[in-house]
Records
---
Amino acid sequence: MTNTLSADLPVLPFSRPTIDEETIAEVGNVLRSGWITSGPKVKQFEAELSNYFGGRPVRCFNSGTCTMEIALRIAGIGPGDEAITTPNTWVASSNVILEVGATPVFADIDPVTRNLDLDKLEAAITPRTKALIPVYISGLPLDMDRLYAIANKYKLRVVEDAAQALGSHWQGKRIGSFGDFVSFSFQANKNLTTAEGGCLVLNNEEEATLAEKYRLQGITRSGMDGIDCDVLGGKYNMTDIMATIGLGQINKIDAITAHREMLAQHYFDCFGPEFEAKSGAQLPMRAFGLTNWHLFQLVLPESVERASFMRQMMDEHKIFLGYHYRAVHLFTLYRALGFTDGMFPIAERVGKQNVTLPMFNAMTKQDVERAVEAVKSVLYK
């Protein structure tokens, strides 16, 4: 690996969206058309996503958060019910449980996959449990066969937080092409972006019709002027501007995933077999064929302060990192519900020590080499 460290190098962010000139031109056409809110582009995007997911109904929204809330509402989850999720996630995964008036329950994570430990998930099920919200960190799915065996055993609905998992697979099947409710995010740092936005994959047209009501004030229209409102909905619709950005990428998602797999393999090659033993850091699971490599994360050794490590990477090497995520149950909102330190020790350790290295569609092998060299330079001091 060549010495790439130089004060003259540009900033290397941990993520950067890629929007090609053809898509930018199409957005301009939408703006000139006068139809900039939900319209034909949203319908086209939904149709292409449905095709991608094997013909399942798909509805698009203005975020990947409201998709999970709406799935819970469609499933009838509310006050008195419990839903189990992971503490190692963006807080949206548990906030949506609170939004529908249900009680969030957490289970600790597996130290290798950093996803929900299914043994601990099953142990957390009570008579009040009505739903499971697994989260696919970095795009890596759980053992889907066992997940759904547990759900079927206890007659639970599953709302898959697949926000990071577009392009991921389980046993050769695309995540989203099977299962119960499956929620994806198209936020700016995702493999496919619409700037903000998301979609929900549903089981049938009845659920899709109800999802449409929930995303736009509960309204149903008929004929020239027929209108009614029979459920309490919100304002969650995707715009044609956002859908046009997504349409510029949906047919490229397999190529995007392949490129990210190449980058991930190069990360492993550059770190080498001695890195974990020498540094005390933990690399991600080598889950080729499963994950879309949305993120490439390290868990730093306990002796390294994360903020100091991130600062050195930025100040000395001009490389910006993220972290995904702090343990949700330790936020003030959740401490007020009775959650405390020590309840989920693996998630707490990972939440305190994880860092996300640069990984985005326009990255090159040289960028990977630069990031790895910088990581080693800081950790091996």
---
Amino acid sequence: MTDLFSGTKKKSTLPPKKAVLFADGGARGNPGPAGAGCILLDEDKKMIAQDSVWCGIQTNNFAEYTGLIRGLELALENKITELEVFLDSNLIVEQMSGNWKIKNANLRPLWERACALREQFEAIQFAHIPREKNTRADRLANQAMDRKS
């Protein structure tokens, strides 16, 4: 929560609600038919929510950001205050961590949206994982590509 007068975040007086987010995106061809998926788990690894999103004809990185953005939205909708985010896109992890610049103008609005969502959490971490550790989010992304909607 932001104090409108000081511009700083206020800590919630409620106990933190922690979760883990796995997000992924992909395109069949680059660009090509693209989809994104995300799954939100509680601390005991039980599913809180999941979603898949058809991205249209887009690039892989566009779909990766879409999966992240939808996952952050799901976390906020479920009142999560502390979040660990796992992605198999090192590019997205490094850009969201502030280590790499956004060179692609088409990704900048997605990065800006993800950063605005990131600011709404009391604590958030981004980590890169191998693709084989992100199978549930990958499956959701592929389902979106398969149904094209």
---
Amino acid sequence: MKIIRNSNPAGPRVIALGTFDGVHLGHRELIRRSREMARAQGVPLRVYTFDRHPLEILRPEAAPGRLQTPEEQAEMMAECGADELCVIAFTRETAATEPEDFLRRLHAECEIRGIAAGWNYSFGRGGLGNAELLRADAERFGYRAEIVPPVRTPEGEVISSSAIREKLKRGETEAAEEMLGYPYRIRGTVVNGKHEGTRIGFPTANIRTEAEKLLPAWGVYACMLESGGKSWKAVVNIGEQPTIPSGHVTVEAHALGVRMDLYGKKAGVALRTYLRPEKRFASVEELTAQIARDREKAEEILREA
């Protein structure tokens, strides 16, 4: 898949529009329909998105954590069948663009053969661009505009990035996975820590993540530790480690039944089940006993993994 970061005039294209944070099941349905349109006409599928959540510019204090890093998003877009990913830098000037000017930009960059967007997609100044404007533009220029209705869980809940964030903030990893279509992952580089885990018999991989990445509710999770194409059953503690404080929030994963050295390597955890909230213990001995219980519970949960 080709990643485009600047204006890149091209020939006929089908376009998919959205923020696509998480590339969840709703996004995948939109991309699937876009891909079908593109394949039916024998043209590439170009996905347009922004390089950040608009609130990071407009209201930084209210900006949500990202479900995916740009690299993770691009990787999943390629898996979904996008031929090109066009990443637009979101600035205050971008936010002030009139909806009609945004559409003119798309027409200047390619011959639009079709556009797909979600039912609640908005664009341009004040979010004034909407499905009706896309349909009117399609009628004017003779292409097809497909507005994809909300995708719901079996329980009837609308799948959205904001709903997934709320579930993760409550530690509801299974519910988040149901909407994402895959386990929520936290990735980064394994860095040196204080080695307290090793001293008490539970060595950990301390994963340094990007600051913008959304971390779920603090606590202990059963997970899969992943690195270099391999995976191991593990438990991970996310939080401030109140019993043996580190002074900052950490993501520390302990592989079950195997010792390894991942320092300096890329690694991540795929969260499966929230085991318990983070807690301050009266002694290191109490903490050690609880970690042993966490291990046993995680082993039981992950037995079929």
---
Amino acid sequence: MSDVLHKLPEFLGNHLALAALFLALLLAIVVMEIMRLFRKYKELTPAGLTLLINRESPLLIDLSAYADFEKAHVPGAKHVAMSQFDPENKDLAKAKELPVVLIDKDGRGASDKAAQRLVKAGFSKVFTLGGGVFAWQQAQLPVAKGNK
């Protein structure tokens, strides 16, 4: 171990670009994790969503493309196109005190953006499904098909 520590300054001097890249990536990871911890909405696993459905009957909103929604969605989810998603909508505003779970196809952004908008609009219990419908299917949980 001490041999590694003695050779570290020489390695860093010879590979400055690699050392800088490592520090930049490490800093980026730390910043992203800190941001994740302090955001006002939580990410659920498929098992966590199942528990929430069984305990609190949340409002499930699927932001996937309509064709993807018809192929497979979490049972009980309502489809809303991201372009039409409006937290100020009178029907959605009635659900401010209910848990709201936002779901997209693969958990890569649409649900996070919508969750930020809901939090900004005053919703207190906002969740996203990590990995989206794809994670739900990978967990071998039941899916609904069609527009129901």
